Amino acid sequence: MIENKNLVLIGMPGCGKSTIGHLLSEKLDLPFCDIDQYIENKEKKKIKDIFKDGEAIFRKIEKQAVKEVSLKTPMVISTGGGVIKDEDNINQLKKNGIIIFINRPLELIISDINTEDRPLLKEQSGALEKLYEQRYHLYKMYCDYEIKNISSLEGVVEGILELVGK
Fold first, then answer.
1. Which residues are annotated as a binding site for substrate?
2. What confidence tier does 160 reach under pLDDT thresholds 50, 70, 90?
3. Which residues are annotated as a binding site for Mg(2+)?
4. CATH entry, 6-161, from 3.40.50.720, 3.90.180.10, 3.20.20.70, 3.40.50.300
5. Residue 102 in 3-state DSSP?
6. Which residue ranges are tagged as binding site?
7. Measured distance CA(1)–CA(19) in Å, rounded
8. From 129's CA, which of 11, 15, 50, 123 has a CA 20 to 30 Å away?
9. Which among 31, 39, 30 has a CA at the least distance from the CA of 57?
């Protein structure tokens, strides 16, 4: 890993970004920031409540949060699943970060995801499948590295550490 770079985790909702991010930050003794949590703390509202004002409002807030968080280095950052919808977000994160796509098969995400706090998934049946179709190629296109999350979380963390040379 290049020193003073952020490790930025991208991927579908429910792929394990936040959990893996926490484990990585502990292993590397780096701060951890979950951008969704950062937004909730800053806005003093849950993501699902911000979404009630419209996705466009949320994406604007998310863009500002990405800008603020990405300036801090080095740290482990877990992004929201839709961060890749705005290329400016990716460009900002890449300035001083290594982008890692946590690739978890859709059927595994579906089997263990809780949609209560995930507004885009709760709205309609088949929403996760639609998001997957829309976003998968973007995750692949924007990542520096890709790792499959099909085994133990510890195995995924070790795999990431190998990928980035730590």
1. 36, 59, 81, 135
2. very high
3. 18
4. 3.40.50.300
5. strand
6. 14-19, 36, 59, 81, 118, 135
7. 20
8. 50
9. 39
